[in-house]
Amino acid sequence: MKLYSTNNKSKTVNLSSAVLQSLPEDNGLYMPLEISPLPSSFFQKLPSLSFQEISYLVAKQLMGDSIPNHTLKSIIDDAINFKAPLITVDENIHILELFHGPTLAFKDFGARFMSRLMNFFLEKSGKKVTVLVATSGDTGGAVASGFFNQDNIDVVILYPKGKVSTLQEKQLTTWGHNIKALEIDGNFDDCQQIVKSAFLDPELNNSINLSSANSINIARLIPQSFYYFEGYKQLSHSQKNINFCIPSGNFGNLTAGLLAKNLGLPINQLIAATNINDVVPKYLKTGEFNPIEAHHTLSNAMDIGRPSNFNRIMDFYGSTWNKVKKDIKGYSYNDQVTINTIVEGNSKLGYVFDPHTAIGYTAAKEYNTQFKEENTIVLSTAHPIKFKNEIQKYIDFSIPYPTTIQYTLDKQSDKKQLSNNYNDFKNYLLSK
What we know:
Blueprint: E1 2-5, E2 8-14, H1 15-21, E3 30-32, H2 40-45, H3 51-63, H4 69-79, E4 86-90, E5 93-97, H5 107-125, E6 129-134, H6 138-147, E7 153-160, H7 166-173, E8 179-184, H8 188-199, H9 202-207, E9 210-212, H10 218-224, H11 226-234, E10 242-247, H12 252-262, E11 270-274, H13 279-286, H14 310-317, H15 321-327, E12 328-332, H16 335-349, H17 355-370, E13 375-380, H18 388-391, H19 405-410, E14 415-418, H20 422-431
Parallel strand pairs: 5-13, 6-7, 6-9, 7-8, 8-14, 10-11, 10-13, 11-12
Antiparallel strand pairs: 1-2, 1-3, 4-5
Helix pairs in contact: 3-4, 3-11, 4-5, 5-6, 5-10, 6-7, 10-12, 16-17
């Protein structure tokens, strides 16, 4: 598998380099040089394939001979070892539950696959690496869980002070060993900018081998394409067009959908659903991309005003607005709409939405008022219990309570507070 930078298509690297470096030196993002559609025989047998079999065949199609077949199969069997059930909640609207992994968030798919892939490459090279992660909520917990006790990897997680849920903070600050958590006095965009600055700092990179587990790393996006095929499989008996509605913040999840689409999955429409941090829906309507300072909302994982993966979306479409807006529709909603949807979801549908899935469902419902004869799959990105403290005052019903949660909440946090000044972060890393 060869990959190029979105800022320079003439220079390519192999998958190992892209995964371990995360970002090209020119501050672009790595993209596959070629994406060959899966053969028709794959789609003919898709309904009979297990999730792990689908994941292996999709990964093999993308990654080619980058790693041995038996190693790839072993990585997938170990990483993708939980289900992604499709639940029908409304006429032609279905929820693909991606929160059945260890940290109850869809990012378990990417983090677990990536940690094992990265460790394979590191074992071959004899190197060690420090993984930097900026999180607005679920990424940090998933990475901490997925990378915990990986011998060749240290992890440093940056998260915005006061802007993640109580459970999310516990999930990323209670590990110890090779996992370090930094509470940054700022927002997610500050955290993300610090990480990007670190990768572009020659002095720091001469001292420490750095990599990232954010969706800027292509190894996060590859496994996230798997569940598009799994969701489609579960509706493959339908004769209707199938859309995917994606709660979107940094737009890595939607970019994974574009990978699936380019691999031949017959996705009719991609729907980007977000909160008031709506720079991409505005772009889809106007053709103008104007980043903003992120606003804090109940759906905190989408509180991103400068989504990194927008550049990958542009790369897929050659920055041609008419092509982008044809394939992707954008919707945005405020907290009051989110709360209303959570309340009505329980009373009318008997389903409990987390704030992000609530926004996804609202967008799917609005889209389906125009296109009544199409099926829309909403990607449910997190279990609602992760936002119990944030939404409890707005609801009069209980949220299903997984048995593993109390154990996590009872654990002792281990975190360090830092300003949003890059030099403070740099000095912290160099001191370690």
